[in-house]
Amino acid sequence: MGKISAGQKFREALSNNSPLKIVGTINAYSALLAEKSGHRAIYLSGGGVAASSLGVPDLGITSLQDVLIDVERITNVTEIPLLVDADTGWGGAFNIARTVRSLTNAGAAGLHIEDQVAQKRCGHRPNKEIVTSKEMIDRLKAAVDAKTDQNFVVMARTDALANEGLDSAIERAVAYQEAGADALFPEALTKLDEYIAMSKVLNIPVLANITEFGQTPLFNCQQLKEAGVAMVLYPLSAFRAMSKAAEVVYDEIQKEGSQEKVLDRMQSRDELYEVLDYHSFEKKLDELFKD
Predict the structure, then answer these.
(1) Residue 199: CB atoms within 10 Å
(2) Which of the residues 114, 131, 204, 208 could staple to 135 if both were Cys, CB 3.0 to 4.6 A apart?
């Protein structure tokens, strides 16, 4: 029997968890921490790549290559299926096809592609602009046609609610499903009733993006399950906590000239080694180079 693809692993996780929690992992070590906590699916945020790897805002500045570097680093250390934020696909039909093939080859389980214009903005910021439904359908058709693994997940994200209202967002969602989308990501919804309305008309699973400090309230998994949601995404929760902790440590060292008072906020050396399986690597070295 052949090896199970990442896309198939994602679909199995979706089938076995209701809803499936998908946590953001900004780098390989974060992915290991998520695995240690028992998570069944992980996520690479476009905004996370922009902020953590490049130090720039989430304004469509990153390239496919920037994202691929982080994808490969994550998939090299964990078998947990990885969903990837592909923004608008990084170009026209041939570029989108290249994105699908490249992410598949890099070990990703799937991607989501959105209906914003190429000069995109964070989905929870004002003044977003979206393309026509026809243009987004063309993006999706290019992505679906480019699949080399039919289990690779092509998820359609729509940012239409903020610009055109719920009815239009639902109309787009149905059209995206008909174009071959495997799942639907309606961005920046504000009410559970909106998820209910969306899920009622679709035959594909719906994702809720429960990001902090945005437009969507922090609905819990039970509420979202009852609203018909199949996947709950936490794209940058751990990254925000890590960043705040780092600020505290940097400030403490700058002000006090010592880190002693913030040791309780740190992961210990032994805890780090446990996550990395450090001692197994060390043992292997000893065996390889013993006299």
Answers:
(1) 21
(2) 131
| 246 Cβ neighbours under 8 A, 6+ residues apart | none
pTM over 0.90? The answer is: yes
Residue 7 contacts residue 81 (beta carbons within 8 Å): yes
Please tell me the distance from the alpha carbon of residue 25 to that of residue 30, in angstroms, as a whole number: 5
Tens digit of each residue's pLDDT (9 = 90 or more) over 123-160:
666 667 889 999 999 999 999 999 999 999 999 999 99
d(CA 170, CA 7): 26
Q: How far apart are CA 54 and CA 269, in angstroms?
A: 27
Active site members = 43, 58, 85, 87, 112, 114, 122, 157, 187, 209
The model's pLDDT over 60-91, given as tens digits with 9 standing for 90+, comes to 899 999 999 999 999 999 999 999 999 999 99
